[in-house]
Fold this sequence. Notes:
14 strands
Amino acid sequence: xxxxxxxxxxxxxxxxxxxxxxxxxxxxxxxxxxxxxxxxxxxxxxxxxxxxxxxxxxxxxxxxxxxxxxxxxxxxxxxxxxxxxxxxxxxxxxxxxxxxxxxxxxxxxxxxxxxxxxxxxxxxxxxxxxxxxxxxxxxxxxxxxxxxxxxxxxxxxxxxxxxxxxxxxxxxxxxxxxxxxxxxxxxxxxxxxxxxxxxxxxxxxxxxxxxxxxxxxxxxxxxxxxxxxxxxxxxxxxxxxxxxxxxxxxxxxxxxxxxxxxxxxxxxxxxxxxxxxxxxxxxxxxxxxxxxxxxxxxxxxxxxxxxxxxxxxxxxxxxxxxxxxxxxxxxxxxxxxxxxxxxxxxxxxxxxxxxxxxxxxxxxxxxxxxxxxxxxxxxxxxxxxxxxxxxxxxxxxxxxx
Length: 401
């Protein structure tokens, strides 16, 4: 509790020294007002979205969230702005929250675990602002709230001690499921030498990767060819590509004859795409359907599929319910969103319609796989304490940087 009080005091001080942080406008229409944390309607809402360490052109988390917020606001006649922090730091993200509130925002959408610090510092400072924290977990909040000495087991703490639950909704996604779907599809489609290029070894990326390994293994066991399937596994150490990571991918696609790489980490797909283009390799996207960007920049037909999160569905559902006065359905919750239906498009983790379905893995096969997962016939572990025990070969290389 002492840490929470200190966070409130520090954030209060920050209110007196708000600096501009690169705010830019998205779509806007009529509607304003300070709102109330317990009730709202579309006419009261003024929505803001803040980017994490990327921007709204990352073809991933930030861009999908931005486009979903902007589209919803335009359709509902609600003011909307987005803000890009001046730097990749908790202080800059906090300053963007201050700026958004100073400019009238009463609903703030924050995509990514990096916003845990902002919740700890700002949710109590601005009780009349509703915070929608996408992909922020109890562990993320506890890490920032507890600080030094954190055990990295959120069950050791009462997460509600570190942020204001009355005006905050958090959700995470079962990335292991969409990772599983991508790995399963790749092996069923005939790829035998796979790669996983994660951004940083944070829980969400690890769940994607470990799910990918489990899915590839399950498909190989069904095909009876586990001895023929290999996955090269590495983290880039950052969420964007560069010359060093591209060179590493050149070795995979070139010397090692890797056929397809799951590029899992925001803009890190650029390095996989650049390397794949030189040898006719393939890429799997992440978070959103990245086929348009990857294929457009690096070669038509390069993207086998994308392991997606339902960011758009989350934004649309929550904002619509806030406008309908249903904030009480969300306040204080930390939901873990996954498969909720036999119909793939209705789920919060899925593959896109642009998946390169083929004889080995048809759309009907995909539908049947999702149905089995929804029914509980297939169990996918979300344990990231160690690489899953599998029959296929997995070569781990740690981190490039």
